[in-house]
Design a protein that fits this description.
With 127 residues, this protein is an all-alpha fold. The protein contains five helices and no strands.
Amino acid sequence: MKKKLTKQELVEFKKLLIKIKDKVVDDIKHISEDTLKKSQKEASGDISGYTYHMADVATDTYDREFSLSLASNGRQFLYELEDAFKKIEEGTYGTCEDCKVLISKTRLRAVPFAKLCVKCQEKREKK
């Protein structure tokens, strides 16, 4: 069994990672803009001068925090992608961090930032 991906395979996975990264960055940008640029009134759709009902304020606050949480999760996902890019540069991309076996291309196409082969991932999830 081979230990490393070919240069052509690495190019393929790098393109896939770039495509995913661009989408995540775009999503984070839109979530952040939509959430942070709107005032409380704009977010609720109420531009009148009336006071807010507590339930409406709570719902708007929850929605805002949920959106920021999504953006935060997206940023964490970007760290995973950056780690994959670093591994490509180091020549360790596609190698399981636990057993050092080559991760299947099928798994890498589904989860291009995977750090573990399926067997090792299953072991970790059982713990």
